[in-house]
Amino acid sequence: MKLPREVPVMTLPNAILFPQALLPLFIFEPRYRLMLAETLRTHRMFAVAMQKRGASRETPAAVAGLGLIRVAVSHPDGTSHLILQGVVRVELGPAVHYKPYRVHRIRPLRAPPRDDVRVDALLAKVRELLQERIELGLPFPFPVMSPQKIESDPVAPPGFSPQEILGYLHSINDPEQAADLVSCAVLPGAPERQAILETVDVEVRLRRLIQFLLLEIRKQRKRKP
User: Fold this and answer.
1) Do the domain assignments include residue 1?
2) What are the pLDDT digits (tens) for 38-78?
3) Among residues 43, 72, 99, 158, which is most buried (max CB within 10 A)?
4) What is the DSSP letter of 8?
5) Do 13 and 77 belong to one domain?
6) 119-169 residue pLDDT tens
7) Does residue 200 lie within any of the structural domains?
8) How far does Cα 38 stand from its chain's mean position?
């Protein structure tokens, strides 16, 4: 897939778009309505960036998720519902312009070569911890959706049981994709999700995800009588 050199950027307080993940969005602001119309006429891509913590003005984080519009449903009042699918991590470069909406140059972030033996062992640990989460009754705060199961109506995306989500995640053999989709499905805090998004190295990403999962599991064990 050929990526554009510059894309619109939507800055949101708690939304993080991981590669391959599906993000439902409701477009209602006038500037984003215009952005959507122009994006649909061109490459159908824009970036979703988390708002920097503590910043008083709109300030996107340096690393964002570039997404492709998979489904767009417009409404008579001018608003729209979308399903955006993550394509790749990107580093936001200089702003091309800020109005009527923000546009930045982008640089795709690709993972460096990895040690498959270590990475496979880390991925096995992640799967073990996912099973333990289910046994402890911990939810999947942001259930991932298989691209094969996208429905034409993004207003009410389908729900999935924890076992269905776990089965889908277990079916993913690519460690990089698995790390991102597990992070998307289980990490409830925006700072933790952004930390994973900003971690390009797959081995480091899996180790960081394991730390987050272990911390959550330990907290849940302490709550159990």
Assistant:
1) no
2) 999 999 999 999 998 888 789 999 999 999 999 999 999 99
3) 72
4) E
5) yes
6) 999 999 999 999 899 888 888 776 665 554 444 444 445 556 677 777 777
7) yes
8) 23
Do 38 and 64 fall within a single domain?
A: yes
Quickly tell me which residue has 């994006």 as its tokens. Answer: 39
State how beta strands 45-50 and 80-97 pair: unpaired
User: Residue 85 corresponds to which amino acid?
Assistant: Q
Q: Where are the alpha helices (DSSP H) in the chain?
A: 30-41, 116-135, 162-170, 175-186, 190-197, 202-223
Q: What is the pTM of this model?
A: 0.87
Q: What is the DSSP letter of 51?
A: B
Do 140 and 156 fall into the same domain?
A: yes
Q: What are φ and ψ of residue 46, in 5° steps? A: -150, 165
Same domain assignment for residues 103 and 124: no
Q: How many CB atoms lie within 10 A of CB 212?
A: 20
**Which DSSP string corresponds to 146-179?**
-GGG--S-TTSPPP--HHHHHHHHHT---HHHHH
* Rounded distance between C-alpha atoms, residue 121 and residue 119, angstroms: 5
